[in-house]
Amino acid sequence: MSLRHRFLSYPIHPGIPVYGDTPKPVFQSCLDMAKGDVCNTAVFTMSNHSGTHVDAPRHFIADGRPIADYSARELAFEKPVVVDAPSGPGELIGAGPFEALGDRLGEADFLLIRTGFWKRRGSDPLYHEANPGISESAARLLRSKGVRLRGIGLDSISVGS
Fold first, then answer.
1. Which helix (H) or strand (E) holds 127?
2. Confidence of residue 10 (pLDDT cuts 50, 70, 90)
């Protein structure tokens, strides 16, 4: 697999990178055929901010819409656009990479930002401590030109640096 093509989601396991003090996932066997049970079954518990996930407005806005209020259809996208915005630790992505999309930005309903920071996932403490983010100027551009955008995704642990 080339370095340009990566997974949108990663497997969930107890050692996945989590943001700040977010608890890591816990897996617990509740039925085990080796112990005479009719099947193998496990329970897992994890924060809604573990692994690949969607943040709804409620995550940052006290009276924002919670993720449970979204239908599956609202979380399906038909015109995603990928933009390359190589970024280093703590770097804020400026408006440039998004301006370069031209009319494609106005047509997109989902924007995937490829910073390259995924390469630090699981091995570099900077993945947790100094991820890239989106600058104020970029956010303003996305609000004004990305009129159909309903979501933004990126390959780091948080959208904010």
1. helix 126-129
2. confident
Which DSSP helix (H) or strand (E) runs through 99? Answer: helix 96-99
Contact 78, 115 (CB under 8 A): no
Q: In what order do the strands lie in the sheet with 80-84?
A: 80-84, 110-114, 151-154
Spatial contact of 115 and 154, defined as CB atoms under 8 Å apart: yes
Rg (CA), the chain: 18
- Report DSSP letters for 36-79, one per residue: T-SS-EEEEE--TTSSS----GGGTSTTSPPGGG--TGGG--SS
**What is this structure's pTM?**
0.83
How many whole angstroms separate alpha carbon 17 and alpha carbon 121? 7
Are the C-beta atoms of residues 46 and 67 closer than 8 Å to each other?
no
138 by Cβ neighbours in 10 Å (0-12 / 13-18 / 19+) ranks as buried
Determine how many CB atoms are found less than 10 A away from the CB of residue 8: 9
